[in-house]
Amino acid sequence: MVHIKFFASLREQLGIDNMSFDTEFPLTIMDLIQQLQAQNDKFSLLNEGNVLVAKNQEITELSDKVQSNDEVAFFPPVTGG
Question: In CATH, what number is assigned to the domain containing residue 26?
Fold first, then answer.
């Protein structure tokens, strides 16, 4: 099981703030996104190049491996001024 969180505009566009996703391991974050997309096309938002991802509260890459009980969070890039 992977615990997934969505923040800011992604949360609003997807209409969900968190979910648990039962999957088989090993897999990468990109694999996880593809599995989510296969379930529902709305998750294609996660495949956009500007989406940031964190695993267990640390920014990471899409190629990073996900383990059981990991938390994966997706959020749009932060801009400042």
Answer: 3.10.20.30
What's the CA gap between 29 and 63, in Å, rounded?
Answer: 6
Q: Which residues pair with 4 in a beta bridge?
A: 19, 72
Digit-coded pLDDT (tens) for 6-45:
999 999 999 999 999 999 999 999 999 999 999 999 999 9
User: Whose structure tokens read 């989510």?
Assistant: 36
Helix (H) or strand (E) holding 4: strand 2-6
The boundaries of the domain holding residue 61 are 2-75
**Strand 18-21 relative to strand 71-75, pairing:** unpaired
User: Residue 54 belongs to what H/E stretch?
Assistant: strand 52-55
